[in-house]
């Protein structure tokens, strides 16, 4: 039985209590996780406080204070990526408005900065905030990139994340991922009476809020590629079902009208369909249904347990796990269920597969050792990326370079969220206010 199904069995024993409902927000301040690995020679980068043409009080604070906070968010994002080593803040010099576009390269070279991020924060007459972001090469004494972001005052952190994304993409050649969110299962309480709630937060842990109140046990939330809805499993009324939750309205509904247990749902790349598993008449198979509802189409029909379907980025194929061979292994099939073939071989079992947004890799949980790894879609190039006690449930960042997963401790402790890059060298713990499991990364925000 897969790791996901073992958790299903566990919560079945615990039971469910009531209907999920909107719950209170909890925390919105910046938090940083613990970095326990990284690249050998990260780039030294200076990110001084951003000046403002005139200090103006806004609903988010004075623009002078916001200039400092924006710089701190950019700094934290770049440090946590593992590619950058920000210059210590006590070594940073004050920047005035004229210097934003005309850096004092010699001063920044003296503190060892290879690159420099400068900018400004300005309150607009239209009731919005403008954040300018400029990237410079200190050694070459040349500008590299610049961008401006106009946001609502409440969204100033998004402007900071987008600035960090611009810098990250320009200097690493990788895709952006900071301006996105994470949905996960927030866990609290003792192991034999644990409360589980759906929660969502920014990638740095800020703007955290609960979507459900914990009166029903919930599992495996997944973001839609269009960012508008999530799907998750709930034990409302002691009936394990997959629900769809509208993030704008808070409304939720079951995806299929069935008396059987449904679970392990994921979206198609266009957000128009959901694949899920249904346990019926002693067999568990993968089905597909339109997000708008309707009749579910059965895609697998082999004896045993087929679950964990994940679409390829082009929507033409689905990777899933099955024990049809006698142990948990990964299989790929066409999106209509045809041409099913096994791709995982070698020692141990394989579970919870997720296809990379780039299409070049599939992340998985290696059962037995319970660690997270990747392989190519043809099954070659298998690499184990983590070495924890119990690491599972990988979820890809929008750029296809970073993977979130959760780690369970020995004994009675709460699980926690972690991230690892595709090299396995950069690993860090993510900030959450409570225990955390089953993460799913959103797409880049609009």
What is the overall number of helices?
5
Averaged pLDDT: 90
Tell me the Rg in angstroms: 23 Å
Unreliable spans are 1-36
Number of strand segments: 31
Helix content: 10-25%
Question: How far apart are the first and last residues' alpha carbons, in Å?
Answer: 39 Å
Strand content: 35-45%
Specify the overall morphology.
Answer: globular
For the largest beta-sheet, the strand count, sense and barrel status come to: 5 strands, mixed
Show the helix and strand layout.
Layout: H1 3-14, E1 43-46, E2 57-58, E3 61-62, H2 63-81, E4 84-86, H3 97-100, H4 105-110, E5 115-123, E6 128-137, E7 142-152, H5 156-172, E8 181-188, E9 195-202, E10 209-210, E11 218-223, E12 229-234, E13 241-246, E14 252-254, E15 261-267, E16 273-280, E17 283-290, E18 297-298, E19 306-311, E20 317-322, E21 329-334, E22 341-342, E23 349-355, E24 362-367, E25 371-375, E26 383-384, E27 391-396, E28 402-407, E29 416-421, E30 427-429, E31 435-441
Parallel strand pairs: 1-4, 1-5
Antiparallel strand pairs: 2-3, 5-6, 6-7, 8-9, 8-31, 9-10, 11-12, 12-13, 13-14, 15-16, 16-17, 17-18, 19-20, 20-21, 21-22, 23-24, 24-25, 25-26, 27-28, 28-29, 29-30
Helix pairs in contact: 2-5
